[in-house]
Amino acid sequence: MPEQLSLPPISESLWWAIPNCLAGVRKPTEKDLPVLRSLQVGAIVSVLSDDANLELYKRYKYPHLWIPIAGGTAPSLSQLQQLKTFVDSQNDCGNAVAVHCSNGLRRTGTVLTALLIKQGADYDSAMAAIQATNPAVELREAQISFLKNLSSTSSI
Hints:
Radius of gyration: 14 Å
Number of domains: 1
Number of helices: 7
Strand order of the largest sheet: 1-2-5-3-4
CATH topology: Protein-Tyrosine Phosphatase, Chain A
Order of helices and strands: HEEHEHEHEHHH
């Protein structure tokens, strides 16, 4: 897919759910990868339903993880555990992790909120934290239901 000409700079698309540890961002282009590294992002998680950019991340030697999630939906519990394990291991190595979908809002917002819930936040405080850092995050009903259920049964 050709790169869009109207993409905002990646530095304006990056938003920190947990400062210097966990961020959300739009799908980066090749020219964005050195900029992300300069912004202290050391690892990338793609939650796109396709494997776009994975070869690019390999070429730029970015530790990365692909968790395919269909648009408008939430991850499975096993995907969430896989994501949490990757983020924890990268943070332990000193790498901040950026999670992306297409625009860095719905699927990205869902998984970042889920990770805050896994750290002990309830649904309302996790959503408030995400909305405070990126007011453009707007989740679908299936994603909201997943997060509310996760909050009431959280024990990964």
